[in-house]
Amino acid sequence: MKKIISLVLALALVLGLCSFASAEAVKKVGIAMPTQSLERWNRDGAYLQDQFKAAGYDVILTYSDNDNDKQVNDIANMLSQNVDMLIISCIDSAGLNTVLDEAAEKGIPVIAYDRMIENDAVTYYVSFDNYTVGVLQGQFVKAALDLDNAGDKVFNMEFTGGAPTDPNAFYFFNGAYDQLKEYIEKGTIKVPSGQTTMEQVGTEQWSTDTALSRAQNILGSYYADGTILDAWLCSNDSTARGVVQALDSDYAGGNAVVVTGQDGDIANLINVVDGKQTMTVYKNVANEAVVTLSVAKAILAGDEIDGAALAAAQEIECAYDTESYFSSEGHNTPSFLLVPTVVTKDNLQYLVDTGLYKWDADQKYLEAV
To answer: Under a CB-based contact definition with an 8 Å cutoff, are residues 179 and 220 in contact?
Structure first.
């Protein structure tokens, strides 16, 4: 009888230890997203949360209402809850120094997600090739206006950039502007407002309303007499919505204007079908979440990471880059960069094929799945 009791106790002890070990093995991941006011960040947060939970991690997900102080507090709370990793899409690239210094002191790895962070606590950066996003927009305008065959014809265009606190905004703008600069310099493209720098065209918090107000001012000042506007290069979809609203209400030229965007927001895809926006650069953020999980798994497992091999092992087209992005001057951040895609009215089926969109009942507009 004593032997049986001893055996039962031993078994209970073993099971208890196994249970404890299992509990110990569960890692906790903190995911800090900037806002729920833009459609794409709701998608990013949901995809990341789903991927990490399915992989067996505990997840804390926060949205910070485009308020840097709130994001600092959100991250500080994650650290107080002993997260094993932070995945952060920042509001202000230089606004997280104190809390990330604390993360570094605790040895907590940090993945900068989609937006680079100016702090050396950042371990890896996962994003799309942001400069290429701008290049695709600039190339699209170049082709749509057939600039290489313009002869003496002059085209009028304007620019709307993103948030000055978001380092991606500069990559997007520079990628586009570099494609169009030669045509501006030789006079094929004229910018009647004269606003051709990020300092002049930036849009705080990527706000639709801010983009709308600025576009209305430009149209009222430079196009109210019927001057033709040929193109408006917008860095993303939320700013493009503001520009499209302004064109609907304040543009007197009467012609269709080439309008670019980025993200594949549903409202913008409706505008693409209706001819109010010409294109959007689509970034499959579900794929971005998959790559982020792969990198995070390797870090949390303590594996020695061969970045090039890890990028090549993805089923998604992804490049490993150790030269383009910096957390501080001289401090390169190894980066995993996915490839964006141009979407127009003619290839909307591409989005349906991702499984993340579907046609509506009339097969005219797209809806989120």
So the answer is: no
pLDDT digits (tens, 9 = 90+) for 284-324: 999 999 999 999 999 999 999 999 999 999 999 999 999 99
Angle, alpha carbons 36-164-198 (nearest 5°)? 130
**DSSP assignment of 48-106:** HHHHHHHTT-EEEEEE-TT-HHHHHHHHHHHHHTT-SEEEE--SSTTS-HHHHHHHHHT
39 and 84, same structural domain? yes
Number of domains within the chain: 2
Range of the domain at 110: 7-128+285-338
Helix (H, G, I), strand (E, B) or coil at 265: coil
Distance (Å, whole) CA 72 – CA 95: 8
Residue 353 predicted with pLDDT over 50: yes
CATH number at residue 80: 3.40.50.2300
Q: How far apart are CA 146 and CA 71, in angstroms?
A: 45
Q: Please determine, for residue 352, whether its predicted confidence score (pLDDT) is greater than 70.
A: yes
**368: in domain:** no
